[in-house]
């Protein structure tokens, strides 16, 4: 909070933002008392709040700013942080038990207790999320520990005891986010940031019912203008909180209608009737009236009866369907004539057991402004300040993608910590590849990676930042998730097997280099075929005579014999590596046969009629010999054919229809990876000295380890996350290498 050279202690600034007025209190706590150095109360100029909830944020912010300015002038320094309390409208409470086991017997510290509290809050939030059947999103505004346990035995205080396990029963209170957002917005308009927030009945009970009274079954009712907030104690702890939306304004509105006055005049009539025998006022016609206070009491009695009936019913509900032993009343609404007597009757209690609490509970509060009277109206404002010391936040609050979250401050928080705490998927922080393509080539797995998408766009207070930017308290963080890239695309002609795998055939004594054709799932496909997920691609190690002719773009004279390895063949005969083919060519460039449309020959080369069947393996040795012979002997028919077409007698490489050798282009798109041994094995790193294998990617960054290592990123509970890579502080985007040493753990924060 605020430091000053005028006062001995740092100052705490608390605001009680009520339905009718705003009360600001500035003070500090000593060992024995709370010292109020300045206090100021200002009524709202209009009905900007109803039933404890802000309706006109601008007007409420304007009132808060005026209170702040007045207090600053009183203390001679600027106020920047404030403690606030929320009214319990649409209040939800969750009671639960939480335990924490130490690795070995340990002396319990205050930090351990604080961590236990935070674990309880997280558990309560999870419970509420499951049971929430409303449209509201709820936010934790306060908690009270009902009972502590040391090694499963009840204890009033855990600190400094040795324990293997500590536990607690805790009651956690929640309000809708829109209620909390309204308070934050109004405070922000006055140039303030929230240092601590609690619930109004929690603040009130810290002052009105000291701990030594909490063994008794007592109800505390804080009656404001718009709401009546209730809390109940028993067996040394606070057992329940509640609220009803009926309070002082119900009476004021009745007076407005009955006496034809404006709201402010009705408020004065209500207050005066409790202090004077007669009340004088002017109605909206400017006619002056003087009436006995008893007339006002008689008028308001039905409303007081309704209010006390509902408050008594709520107290009994919170107390297990039975009355309490006593009830304390605080807040300005408690001064209504006849309220305490009527509530005592509804609770079946003697009248003296339901009483206003003001000066009696403010004995340990000192006001430097001597003109201030100790009054029930001041109980909640003082309690808001004291709550800062009891539940001082070790966390900061931010809004993440529209949702308010708490982060436990270790002075090293970054944007990525907020993302992890909010449960934002880490894969949406970094660019995502499009869907990969998996297939096989000749039985070997292949992977084609998809294209990378765009990185997440991260904004803090409308400023473009990155994931390692330090977090600012009360900031507004928006992360637009990273995008996924295009899915992987690969065609047959992009495969190495298409561009670099070829077979040699001897055609009319010349070496012809033919690319090996590719089959997909047993069918021959065009080079432009887009491979699909799970396709089985096989390299075909043969051509048919017809396909060979089509590849060379020649028209074969069918009136002459076709010879394959010197045996008579047909257009469907198979031609393997190093086979010889002899035919007579009628013309070049006339073939119109598409290799993909030709039938797939399934039979091996057959001999001429009357001959014996030979397989490719049986003829391979023979073919090699024939190739040598073809190169050394100039056959008359072949020479004549070459001379006729102007072809060289020297063997040449033929890869296209014109006889010119052409290079096949390398793949232009996609990243084709053969599933080698390294890809299969992945990357091995050591996390906390344990080997962990990362698989499924070509490369990895630090944040990827959370997909393979069991580590709960949401279980911070007030602790700092330690992330080290090879002994150095790790960045979440750091690239990992084989054998990297990683340290990953939670560390308690020393305060």
Automatic annotation (TrEMBL):
UniProt keyword list: Cell cycle, Cell division
Keyword Nucleus: no
Domain SHS2: from-to ranges: 12-208
Matching SMART domains: FtsA
SUPFAM superfamilies: Actin-like ATPase domain
Region: Disordered, residue numbers: 607-675
InterPro entries linked to this entry: ATPase_NBD, FtsA/MreB, SHS2_FtsA
CDD domains, per the entry: ASKHA_NBD_PilM-like
One Gene Ontology term from the biological process aspect of the record: cell division
Keyword Hydrolase: no
Compositionally biased spans, kind Acidic residues: 615-631
UniProt-listed PANTHER family: CELL DIVISION PROTEIN FTSA-RELATED, ETHANOLAMINE UTILIZATION PROTEIN EUTJ
The name this protein goes by in its record: Cell division protein FtsA
Source organism per UniProt: Roseburia hominis (strain DSM 16839 / JCM 17582 / NCIMB 14029 / A2-183)
Lineage: Bacteria, Bacillati, Bacillota, Clostridia, Lachnospirales
């Amino acid at each position: 909070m605020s430091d000053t050279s005028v006062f001995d202690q740092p100052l705490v600034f608390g605001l009680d933002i009520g339905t009718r007025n705003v009360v600001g209190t500035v003070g500090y706590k000593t060992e024995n008392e709370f010292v109020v150095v300045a206090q100021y109360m200002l009524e709202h100029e209009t009905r900007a709040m109803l039933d404890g909830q802000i309706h006109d944020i601008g007007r409420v912010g304007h009132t808060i700013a005026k209170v702040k300015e007045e207090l600053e002038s009183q203390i001679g320094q600027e106020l920047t942080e404030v403690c606030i309390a929320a009214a319990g409208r649409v209040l939800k409470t969750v009671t639960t038990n939480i335990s924490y086991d130490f690795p070995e017997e340990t002396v319990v510290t205050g930090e351990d207790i604080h961590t236990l509290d935070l674990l309880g809050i997280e558990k309560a939030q999870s419970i509420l999320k499951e049971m929430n059947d409303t449209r509201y999103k709820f936010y934790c505004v306060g908690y009270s520990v009902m009972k502590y346990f040391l090694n499963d035995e009840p204890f009033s205080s855990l600190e400094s005891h040795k324990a293997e396990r500590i536990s607690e029963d805790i009651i956690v209170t929640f309000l809708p986010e829109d209620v909390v957002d309204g308070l934050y917005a109004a405070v922000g308009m006055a140039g303030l940031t929230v240092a601590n927030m609690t619930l109004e009945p929690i603040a009130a009970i810290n002052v009105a019912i000291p701990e030594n009274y909490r063994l008794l079954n007592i109800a505390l009712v804080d009656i404001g203008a718009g709401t009546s907030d209730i809390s109940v104690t028993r067996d040394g702890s606070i057992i329940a909180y509640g609220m009803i939306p009926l309070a002082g304004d119900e009476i004021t509105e009745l007076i407005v209608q009955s006496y034809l006055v404006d709201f402010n005049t009705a408020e004065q009539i209500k207050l005066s009737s409790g202090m004077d025998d007669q009340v004088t006022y002017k109605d909206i016609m400017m006619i002056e009236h003087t009436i006995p206070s008893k007339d006002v009491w008689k008028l308001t009695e039905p409303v007081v009866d309704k209010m006390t009936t509902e408050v008594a019913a709520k107290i009994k509900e919170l107390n297990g369907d039975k009355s309490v032993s006593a009830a304390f009343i605080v807040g300005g609404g408690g001064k209504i004539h006849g309220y305490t007597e009527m509530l005592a009757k509804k609770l079946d209690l003697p009248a003296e057991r339901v009483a206003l609490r003001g000066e009696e509970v403010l004995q340990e509060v000192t006001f430097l402004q001597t003109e201030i009277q100790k009054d029930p109206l001041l109980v909640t404002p003082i309690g808001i300040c004291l709550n800062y010391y009891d539940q001082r936040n070790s966390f900061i609050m931010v809004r993440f993608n529209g949702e308010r979250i708490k982060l436990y401050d270790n002075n090293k928080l970054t944007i990525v910590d907020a993302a992890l705490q909010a449960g934002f998927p880490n894969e949406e922080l970094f660019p995502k590849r499009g869907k990969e393509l998996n297939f096989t080539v000749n039985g070997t797995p292949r992977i084609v990676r998809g294209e990378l998408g765009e990185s997440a766009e991260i904004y803090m207070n409308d400023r473009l930042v990155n994931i390692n930017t330090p977090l600012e308290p009360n900031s507004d963080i928006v992360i637009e998730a990273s995008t996924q890239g295009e899915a992987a695309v690969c065609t047959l002609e992009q495969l190495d097997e298409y561009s670099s795998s070829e077979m040699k055939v001897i055609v009319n004594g010349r070496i012809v280099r033919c690319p090996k054709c590719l089959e997909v799932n047993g069918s021959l496909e065009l080079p432009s075929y887009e491979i699909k997920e799970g396709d089985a691609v096989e390299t075909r190690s043969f051509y048919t005579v017809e396909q060979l002719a089509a590849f060379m773009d020649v028209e074969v004279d069918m009136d002459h014999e076709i010879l394959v390895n010197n045996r008579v063949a047909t257009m469907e005969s198979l031609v393997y590596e190093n086979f010889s083919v002899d035919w007579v060519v009628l013309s070049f460039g006339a073939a119109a046969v598409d290799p993909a449309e030709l039938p797939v020959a399934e039979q091996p080369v057959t001999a001429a009629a009357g001959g014996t069947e030979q397989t490719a393996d049986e003829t391979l040795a023979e073919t090699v010999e024939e190739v040598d012979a073809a190169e050394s002997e100039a056959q008359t028919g072949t020479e004549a054919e070459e001379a006729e077409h102007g072809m060289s007698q020297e063997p040449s490489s033929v890869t296209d229809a014109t006889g010119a050798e052409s290079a096949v282009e390398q793949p232009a798109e996609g990243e084709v990876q053969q599933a080698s041994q390294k890809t299969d094995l992945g990357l091995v790193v050591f996390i906390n000295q344990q080997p962990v294998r990362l698989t499924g990617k070509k490369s990895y960054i630090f944040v990827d380890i959370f997909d393979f290592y069991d580590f709960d990123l949401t279980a911070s509970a007030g602790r700092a996350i330690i992330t080290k890579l090879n002994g150095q502080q790790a960045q979440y985007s750091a690239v990992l290498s084989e054998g990297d040493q990683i340290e990953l753990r939670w560390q308690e924060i020393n305060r």
